[in-house]
Amino acid sequence: MDDTTSEKRERFQNNNLLQAWLVLTLALIFGIALAGVQAALGPKIEANKIKETMEKVPEVVLGLEAAQKLAASGEALNIQSRIIEVDKKDKKKFYTVYEARFQDNALAGWVAKAGGQGYADKIELLVGIDALAENITGLFILDQKETPGLGNKISDTAWRNQFIDKPATSPLVVVKDKSQGPSKIDAISGATISSVSVCGIINQTVSDIGPKLTSTKKE
Fold this sequence. Notes:
Elements: H1 3-62, H2 64-72, E1 78-87, E2 92-101, E3 107-117, E4 122-130, E5 136-143, H3 157-161, E6 173-175, E7 184-186, H4 192-216
Parallel strand pairs: 6-7
Antiparallel strand pairs: 1-2, 2-3, 3-4, 4-5
Helix pairs in contact: 1-2
């Protein structure tokens, strides 16, 4: 091998090494910058979620029309948040639950904040439960990153409304055939996994906290 060929190969190897280091350096810089942005925006994002949650509690508990009538009358629900601890097999799980009461202290219901894995990323939601912990009163999607035009339809009002008055005492089941039933939820066309994920989160949540709600309910 002549010196010219050897020099070319060495330059080629050095160039590849330089490019590899450049890619790693850029990735590191991007990662640090992204972490910095998340650290800066994280508290603000969480604060916005809490604010949105408090605004949505009346609707999720009472329904949109009743919540609007209550607001128009100048009244408001008294909302108190608390943490419910659930003992699992190998760990403890904690739920943030909002207790909603009318001005006369009558219990309107509860709203539980819960989350779980969707098709693309984590789904965060609010599920309403009536005062007797027997029926679901509403559903609101706090955060999701499901596929646009498909899975993200879990946020659509029409799809969420079918959860209203579904039993909280038996598991919800996703169906594709539009068959009727007290615990059946129509799947979103082309987004069965997202539909199943939402139902799974709700089923787990009401199963975990239902007994806690009925045992601590104030008359």
